[in-house]
Amino acid sequence: MVKFERPPLATRRARAMRRDATDAEKRLWLLLRDRRLGGAKFRRQAPVGPYIADFVCLRRKLIVEADGGQHADTRYDAARDRWLAEEGYAVVRYSNIDILKNPDGVLMDLFERLQPPDN
Q1: 52 has which bridge partners?
Q2: pLDDT in tens, the chain (119 residues)
Q3: Domains of the chain
Q4: Hey, which residues does 65 pair with through a beta bridge?
Q5: CA gap 10, 81 in Å, rounded
């Protein structure tokens, strides 16, 4: 008999968040998926330590957050960003309005952030 093990809480929560994505998250995912932005592989609603990132490029250690009005400089987000920075991740946040109204500008900014640093 095969025993079914429940996935960890973070995995279950990430799956639920993928199902219930905002319009901005859906739009951004269409632009990032399948290595469409400079060949960078992004994951959507992926656990990173104790947190779930909206989008993460593990190779470049870049986390992209699509933020609505509820994220206006909260202490939780500041603590989260600090922890992620200590782990070597860069976090970039775009407002949902920017993603929906200026997707080309968001993609240009992300593309620049994905480039290797000049030596």
Answers
A1: 47
A2: 555 565 677 777 777 777 888 999 999 999 999 999 999 999 999 999 989 999 999 999 999 999 886 655 688 888 999 999 999 999 999 999 999 999 999 999 999 999 987 75
A3: 22-114 (3.40.960.10)
A4: 93
A5: 18
Could you give the CA distance from residue 65 to residue 29 in angstroms, rounded to a whole number?
Answer: 11
Alpha carbon distance 5, 13 (integer Å): 16
- Residue 96: both structure tokens together: 């949902």
Q: Where are the alpha helices (DSSP H) in the chain?
A: 9-19, 23-32, 75-86, 96-101, 103-114
Could you tell me which residues are beta bridge partners of residue 57? 62
Tokens of 98: 């920017």
Number of other CB atoms surrounding residue 70 within 10 Å: 7
**What is the value of pTM for the model shown?**
0.84
